[in-house]
Predict the 3D structure of the following.
Amino acid sequence: MPGKDDRPGLGQDLAWRLQGLGFAGLIAFLRGLGLEGASALGGRLLRTLGPMTRVHRTVLRNLTLAFPDMDPAERAQLAMAQWDQTGRTFAELMMMDRLTPASGRIEIVGAERLEAIRTGGKPVVFVSGHFANFELMPAVILAAGIPCMISYRAANNPYVDRQIRTNRARYGVKLFAPKGGDGARELLAGLGRGESVALLNDQKFSEGPEVSFFDHPVNAAPGPSRLALRFGTVLQPMSVTRLPGVRFRLTVHEPIELEATGDRTGDIARGVQAVTRFVEDRVREHPVDWFWVHKRWPKTVYSEM
């Protein structure tokens, strides 16, 4: 909810409330369809509507940047398939309490690494990207008994945001939206208490070290590497792959160990590149699973196409 200092005007508040009511109705409708019905409907809707939007051009441009040697017809087919994935994921987000490890729909590879983190008593920095249904990662982390701060980007509409948080709380996730210095201090405090943190690290970032992503320059968030270096811990990568029948394979990968050489700037940059390379490798393995709808590269890269 907005604070007193940033309270919206009456018109904005009314618009937000109406959007919130619509969002609540959508959640109720999808939950009424059941998990497989909602997932299928979401996939069909975006597979139909997505290509009609301007975002489809972004999808095709991103696929061209990532896979310049791929046959154009194959890229077009992949663009359609990723819309189905995105639609399914959006619908599934409304009922994540039905997609926990207890549901039997998640195959976990590398579960022993989570157990080692739980029993080791030392926090880690979980890192990943928007792969398939990316919300499965916090569900699995928490189900493994690991205290963890789950970072997310708060919705602009506070009434929608409250519903998102309530929806995630159904399966034990307490979302944390870091903002500026206060957010960084909360993350540091959490790690200091022995809590791990989980961050998605594949979105556009206007600052931070410049690294390579599919042989093109991008800026990537240095936060995960900074935290890992400060607390002398590892970056723990995870990924999700969608399987048939609203089922998934979640993989807990080999940890990324960062070396503290005394060159802090260089150490952070190497960590950022390692995370970015991890994301790229997973995208190359299962390109349909990634979130292609956002502009990951800077304007200069797109302008050179």
User: Anything to note?
Assistant: The first strand starts at residue 106 and ends at 109. Residues 10-33 form the longest helix (24 residues). Strands lie at 106-109, 125-128, 148-151, 175-176, 196-200, 210-213, 216-219, 235-243, 247-252. The mean pLDDT is 91.
